[in-house]
Amino acid sequence: NPSHNSMILLPALPLSPKVRGTHPDCSVVLHFQKREAECLERIRSESQTPGQEGCPTEWDGVSCWPALPLGLSRAVACPDILHVFKKSKGLIQRNCTEWGWSLPSPPYHSACQLETLGGNNDTEAMARHFVTMKVLYTCGYSTSLAALLLAIGIFSCFRKLHCTRNSIHIHFFTSFVLRGTAVFIKDGVLFSDESIDHCTMSTVTCKAAIAFFQYSVLANFCWLLVEGLYLQTLLLLTFTCDRSYTWAYVLIGWGVPMATVGVWVLTRLQYDNHGCWDDYSSPYWWVIKAPILLAIFVNFLIFLNVTRMLAQKIRCPDLSKTHKQQYLRLTKSTLLLIPLFGVHYVVFALFPEHVGVDARLYFELVLGSYQGFLVALLYCFLNGEVQAEIRRNWGKWQRSMESNVFNLATQDFTA
């Protein structure tokens, strides 16, 4: 049957702007599954009305053909999926004969001109593209995880570095560790077994993986907000920040994402519990997206305010040189991170999901995977205070080793 043959080409087609899952193939698959479900529901309702003659309603794998009396014909338009068919106004006709429905005339691939893009070669090229992208972001997250864990170890091991500021940095690093881990877990659950149809997967495990991923992303942006809030508080209170603020920061960084994701999970369970919850076309996606955009917007306001306050304080003649250096050292990293993290997210948030798909994937997956490494570099490895503490402890360790060697040599000589 030509109509069924045409469906073989569909999973390799580009993204649909109307339905989008994590994997590009899922857009077309989910589109046709929805149309099929609607058609089958119509068939079930008509089957309860006996005595109908002619050709019953039929789903042919591409279109739904409503019931038709014997001897008549019906025409339907090409499926309304942009970027899949070159022609969306083409018509396909079928006749109701005494032997049932006739074959589609002309066939779908002729009337609608399927965008096969060269067939298997382009399918393989697209597969290679996603494999390459996966290798790149896997390397990025692995590098980030190694750098972040080392940075957390440095801040935790050296007692002189224990302070509220570095404690917030550790929480920020931890949110990146969770984000990288969540990406690996999500990939492992969704794409580890190629025999599983990830487009229709709807297990508790995959939903939990997606929920954990959304929590880690939201926590990441919330701790970036906390970094901005803490910097502003330091400038306002002139480095006499009360430790009582720490619990408020923890509540914002971990509590707000937990509550938000909890609301999102309950909403999806109640109103949109299909698939693996990785479709960003769902209106309930705004439960996650809105707080992220709000955090970025507030951080942008903090960015402007901190820049203004910093300019005022540096020009202040009463401010000591030491305090000026402290302000500059702390602010340069945060002021760099706030626009770096927020700009591309806001730009893409202003456009529909199907616009700039390749650029969006590149920024979110490839470049985004190295953000953790950049954070560890700015807040830890390039931090003068950290470098001085490492040098001090390294020198202390070297002196201790030299002393031990000298004592051993002395004991041997006297013996």
Observed structural traits:
single chain, 415 residues, mainly alpha, Hormone receptor fold, Rhopdopsin 7-helix transmembrane proteins, 2 domains, two-stranded antiparallel ribbon, 66% helix, elongated, disordered N terminus, GPCR_2_secretin-like_CS, transmembrane helix
Report on this model:
With 415 residues, this protein is mainly alpha-helical. The protein folds into two domains: 52-114, Hormone receptor fold; 134-388, Rhopdopsin 7-helix transmembrane proteins. It contains twelve helices and five strands. The chain has helices spanning 2-7, 25-47, 108-111, 120-157, 164-191, 204-237, 245-271, 286-315, 321-349, 357-367, 371-381, 384-414; strands at residues 58-59, 64-65, 73-77, 91-97, 100-101. A three-stranded antiparallel β-sheet has the order 3-4-5, with no helix packed on it. Helix 4 (120-157) runs parallel beside helix 11 (371-381), helix 5 (164-191) runs antiparallel to helix 6 (204-237) and helix 5 runs parallel beside helix 7. Residues 1-24 and 116-120 have low confidence and may be disordered.
Helices, strands, pairings?
Layout: H1 2-7, H2 25-47, E1 58-59, E2 64-65, E3 73-77, E4 91-97, E5 100-101, H3 108-111, H4 120-157, H5 164-191, H6 204-237, H7 245-271, H8 286-315, H9 321-349, H10 357-367, H11 371-381, H12 384-414
Antiparallel strand pairs: 1-2, 3-4, 4-5
Helix pairs in contact: 4-5, 4-10, 4-11, 5-6, 5-7, 5-11, 6-7, 6-8, 6-9, 8-9
